[in-house]
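#struct-help
A.M.: can someone run this one for me? Single chain, 299 residues.
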Amino acid sequence: MDLFVIEAPLKARTLETILKRLGFSAKVQATKGHLFDMPESLDVPAIDSRMREFRRVPKDIDVVKRLRSEALMAENVIIATDADAEGDVIAWDVATLIRDMHPNPLRVRMKGLDDDSVRASIDAATPVRKADAVAGRTRAIVDRLIGASFSRPDVGVGRVQTALLGLVQRDKPSTLRLNLVAPAKDGGRVFMAEAPCVAPFDPEIARRLTGMALPMISAGATSTVASPAPHMGDIMVRAAEKLDMSPRETDDSMQRLYEQGRLSYPRAGSRGVAPATAAKIEALLRKAGYNVDRNAMAP
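D.P.: on it. Structure tokens below:
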């Protein structure tokens, strides 16, 4: 029996069911995220002068023992962590952990949890490479150096302890009101919208919005604006050109939307979705009452 190693425990049973339908005799074991971690305290950076970490230890020794035990009994080991930089780090850590038993495990980059996506990911399996983990660990080292350099006992700075990169002082609630005006297509009275200028809007954003030339509209009319699927770089460029937003403002806005569940992971480099994912999106949108054509989604 083969062993598939994934990150999230809640996905294990689903993946086992899919693998069975696809004809694989396999067991699924989860890492529960990262296998190894640096000390929580930033008092000691634990990074030497050659930018090497020297205090990464297992986060959960029981998970480590279970992984080694399952690997010992497995015929083949397939590391199916997420298709991102952190998934590559976890994959290399797993490969290092079981090297004495399985020196050449396969790397499967999971991009979806449905039959077609899992099959496509398995068909594209590659060896586990240390080079793939460099980006993720480099970011972690830089994050830790930032945190160790700028944090204070009462304020943690950087991704290691918090996303805080500066102190924010909340002023009194704004008494400003935002007024937007759009011309009417029939040449009649203009359309007006008025609302309090409250978070996430501030006076500067309000100034930009009121300075925009809004399109002509008709009473009761609705329209759908579609644009090619962008990635984060595209969005930042467009936000700067159309909304005069800085990269940091765009990044903060996208992060807030992501945390609210209104945006998919903002730091993706892809401009499309897998066919199986497109089919799921189409079904969900149709159920919500929208007209949608999956063929219009970029693959």
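A.M.: thanks! Confidence is low (pLDDT under 50) at residues 165-171.
D.P.: also worth noting: The chain is about 35% helix and 10% strand.
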